[in-house]
């Protein structure tokens, strides 16, 4: 009996020991989405954010046995993630949108040369950065991952950026941020004031809030998809705001106004005729994988469109053309079969 009991005890201990790594991994993984949202706001790049979170998880896993529990696991992970992001931002230039770099162009102008990938704010699948939960909280969080807000954050020095995100987006107390950054409450408050002043003095804002995804917006977007796929430019321009913008990273060129957008779609952008749009979500907005007709048959990837809506009209069409990298990120196929 004693041998049986000993054997049972040994098996039980072994089972508990083997389960510990799985439990530790689950404890870390439950924070992945919110950490990805944080790193994305810091870095402005979907791919760099995922790399930063993966590095955070690796560092946390290696140091987990030494974690003394003097702070919460969540706070500890944010400390690691912040250090990773600050390291990655050292010496790098800020990312931007085309409208942050130049004045609007005319539809008669060709796109011009492309700029490097590191120039641009990148879109991010909503599910990777927006945790579920209270609808009101989700709405606030959704606004904080809009492309315009991510671009505005890029104007701040990295530590001020971290302070602003932690204090005003994630609602951390000044004392918590001070502990995370190994500084004082006074220093945190000063950094927050400077960050606010920088955005205000440069008239940098996140823009107007986007409409919630309700039946009215769904109907508007359905009209947009129908108009775009049928290339009915009367119907398409009818859903655009008078001052709607069209941008196409990696090109610096961008357009303002529905007349300019229409002229572009009948001119340099006429190759979009016959496209198909496949819905996804990005940055808290409705987005679409755009496929253009392929001469060899079927449809080939062309752009990841992030569509912003406010006041019952489409205010921005953000078309990201780096489909080789973006379509796998958004789970879109490399090709669509003929209809």
Give an overview of the whole structure:
The model is unreliable at 4-19 (pLDDT under 50). The protein has a 6-stranded mixed β-sheet with strand order 2-1-6-5-4-3, with helices on both faces. α2 crosses α3 and α7 crosses α9. It is globular, with a radius of gyration of 23 Å. The protein has helices at residues 2-29, 32-43, 46-63, 73-89, 135-143, 147-153, 158-169, 174-180, 185-201, 215-230, 233-238, 258-266, 323-329; strands at residues 240-247, 254-256, 276-282, 285-293, 299-310, 313-320. Helix content is 49%, strand content 14%.
Going by helix content, strand content and strand pairing, the class is alpha+beta
Number of strands: 6
Spatial arrangement of strands, main beta sheet? 2-1-6-5-4-3
Number of helices: 13
The main pleated sheet reads as: 6 strands, mixed
In which range does the helix fraction lie? 40-55%
Portion in strands? 5-15%
């Amino acid at each position: 009996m004693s041998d049986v009991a000993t054997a049972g005890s040994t098996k039980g201990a072994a089972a508990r020991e083997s389960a510990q790594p799985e439990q530790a991994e689950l404890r870390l993984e439950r924070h992945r989405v919110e950490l990805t949202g944080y790193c994305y706001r810091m870095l402005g790049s979907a791919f760099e954010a995922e790399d930063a979170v993966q590095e955070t998880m690796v560092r946390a896993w290696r140091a987990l046995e030494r974690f003394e529990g003097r702070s919460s696991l969540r706070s500890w992970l944010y400390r690691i993630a912040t250090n990773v992001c600050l390291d990655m931002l050292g010496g790098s230039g800020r990312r931007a949108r085309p409208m942050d770099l130049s004045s609007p162009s005319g539809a008669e102008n060709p796109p011009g040369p492309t700029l490097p990938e590191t120039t641009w704010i990148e879109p991010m699948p909503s599910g990777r950065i927006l945790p579920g939960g209270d609808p009101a909280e989700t709405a606030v969080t959704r606004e904080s991952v809009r492309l315009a807000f991510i671009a505005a954050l890029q104007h701040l020095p990295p530590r001020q950026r971290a302070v602003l995100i932690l204090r005003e987006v994630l609602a951390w107390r000044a004392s918590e941020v001070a502990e995370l950054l190994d500084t004082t409450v006074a220093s945190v408050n000063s950094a927050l004031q400077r960050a606010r002043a920088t955005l205000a003095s440069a008239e940098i804002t996140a823009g107007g809030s986007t409409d919630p995804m309700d039946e009215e917006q769904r109907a508007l977007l359905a009209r947009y998809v129908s108009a775009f796929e049928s290339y009915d430019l009367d119907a398409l321009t009818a859903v655009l705001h008078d001052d709607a913008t069209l941008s196409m990273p990696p090109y610096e060129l961008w357009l303002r106004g529905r007349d300019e957008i229409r002229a572009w779609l009948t001119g340099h952008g006429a190759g979009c005729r016959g496209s198909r749009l496949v819905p996804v979500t990005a940055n808290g907005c409705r987005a679409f994988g755009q496929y253009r007709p392929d001469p060899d048959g079927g449809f080939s990837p062309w752009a990841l469109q992030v569509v912003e809506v406010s006041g019952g009209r489409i205010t921005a069409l953000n078309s990201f053309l780096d489909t080789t990298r973006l379509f796998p990120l958004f789970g879109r196929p490399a090709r669509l079969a003929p209809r």
